[in-house]
From TrEMBL:
Name of the protein this chain belongs to: 3-hydroxybutyryl-CoA dehydrogenase
Superkingdom of origin: Bacteria
Residue stretches making up the 3-hydroxyacyl-CoA dehydrogenase NAD binding domain: 3-182
TM stretches of this protein: none
GO molecular function, one term: oxidoreductase activity, acting on the CH-OH group of donors, NAD or NADP as acceptor
Pfam family, one: 3HCDH
Similarity comment: family membership: Belongs to the 3-hydroxyacyl-CoA dehydrogenase family.
Domain 3-hydroxyacyl-CoA dehydrogenase C-terminal: 185-281
Organism for this UniProt entry: Hymenobacter glacialis
Amino acid sequence: MMNVAVIGSGTMGNGIAHVFAQHGFTVALIDISQPALDRALGTITKNLDRQVSKATLSEEDKTTTLGRLRTFTSLQEGVANAGLVVEAATENVDLKLQIFRDLDQFAPADAILASNTSSISITKIAAVTKRPQQVIGMHFMNPVPVMKLVEVIRGYATSDAVTEQVMALSRQLGKTPTEVNDYPGFVANRILLPMINEAIISLFEGVAGVEEIDTVMKLGMAHPMGPLQLADFIGLDVCLAILRVLHEGLGNPKYAPCPLLVNMVMAGRLGAKSGEGFYQYTAGSKELVVAERFRR
């Protein structure tokens, strides 16, 4: 179990790899793109440097952590010795199902197969494998090195032993694992995404502007980040995908995504990662600027 494979080297994947490596695990970071893997290692190094500058990590520990990381563009090679695989690929159900079919073929028979999905059914993912009792959800929060929660999702067939192992592993990482059952959106997004959607509806209907909505929630509800800024941070395409999972899975119209959100995603305004969502984002600037379309 000290050998961990992480699939996907984006924001979540490199964060998960960082945390496992920092806590003594040997990590195989897997992606189909070598340039993406190189960027991920650069991000991990930069984040470790930040920890060193804050005196929460020694220079020696940084070097040791980086030494525990290896990169692979072959899934078969990357998972060959894994006791735990954590899939952190794009939130696309067809992609995830194919990855788990491949994992079932290539990962050791006793390996635990976990998904970092924020909304897709663990039961559905497990059903494409011959080891559904060993499939589980490990939903880390972004940014992974900072956020303490791991939402541990039991599929219909996930065994007690696997659940206990994953809860214990999460604690080894300095996280607080919380066990939930496999229903659309789990807990975090079942509660969070309707709030974000309602904030977008409030903007859409002219109740208040972007800055005003976020200010009310930050100062009135003690949220560290307003819901519209948070939506930009998550990615508006990801928010839309989760809302559609909730709407389809629960059949309740209250989960229907706001038309404004749908239009923004179709127009490519995805939030921070595209440079514009409800706010505008400029590389190197931390100033929060409302997108021109929403300025009053």
